[in-house]
Each structure stands twice: as C-alpha cells, then as structure tokens.
Amino acid sequence: INLEHRDGRYHWRVDFAAMEEMLRDFFRTDAWEVVVRPPAGTEVHIVKATQSNTLDPEAAARVQAATVTGRTHYHELEGGHWINTDNPDGVLRLLVDNLP
C-alpha cells in the first residue's frame, strides 16, 4: 500500500527521491554487452510481446543478430506489455522448455 493514514490525513509512503534515483540508475545501465556476449555458462532469453512496443524494431533486430552466439535467444509471444498476465501459458511453456 502506497498510502498510510497518519494524523488524520493520508501520506505517501513512497520515497520519491529513491524511486527517481533507481529510475536514473536504470537508464544509465547498458546491458547490451551481456546480450551480445553472455558470460561463460550463461544463456540470455529475451521475450518480446507481440503487442508491446517496449522493445522497438531496432532493438529486436540487435537481439536477433546476437543469437548467432547460441547463448542469446529471442522469443516472441502473443500478448501485450504485461506478457505474464496476457499469456501466462506461453510464458510457462518458455520456462519449461528452456530451464534445465
């Protein structure tokens, strides 16, 4: 719950400064090196929801190009941004098929 009732009023529990710093840190982080060259013994699976534009066509092409390593994998599943709720069976199938 992001609100708390205190002193007869509602107050935000959310630490907006901390959230902003986490968001700024997120945008500073460039993980393409891990996608292009996964660490030894590691496989990377990228899932693109077909009705989501979070992964734009250029980024999707970069991921697909990285699959030549054999350790980076690109999957497309029917659904929107919240693929886990839009297509839980598809997500489960990917997990079952790809987890050791």
Description of the molecule:
The protein has 5 helices and 4 strands, in the order ββααβαβαα. With 100 residues, the protein is an alpha+beta fold. A hairpin with a 2-residue loop joins strand 1 and strand 2 (9-12). The two termini are 36 Å apart.
- The overall average pLDDT, rounded, is 93
Biggest beta sheet attributes: 2 strands, antiparallel
Radius of gyration: 18 Å
N to C succession of SSEs? EEHHEHEHH
End-to-end Cα distance, whole Å, is 36 Å
* Total number of strands: 4
Stretches with pLDDT under 50, minimum 5 residues = none
> For the largest beta sheet, what order do the strands appear in spatially?
1-2
Helix content: 40-55%
Q: DSSP strand (E) fraction?
A: 15-25%
Q: How would you classify the helix and strand content by structural class?
A: alpha+beta
**Rough shape?**
elongated
Total count of helical runs of at least 4 residues: 5
In short:
The protein is of the alpha+beta class. It has helices spanning 16-28, 32-36, 57-66, 83-86, 88-98, and strands at residues 3-6, 9-12, 44-49, 72-77. It starts with a strand and ends with a helix.
Core attributes:
100 residues, elongated, two-stranded parallel ribbon, alpha+beta, 43% helix, 20% strand, two-stranded antiparallel sheet
Present the secondary structure layout:
Blueprint (H helix, E strand, L loop, with lengths): L2 E4 L2 E4 L3 H13 L3 H5 L7 E6 L7 H10 L5 E6 L5 H4 L1 H11 L2
Parallel strand pairs: 3-4
Antiparallel strand pairs: 1-2
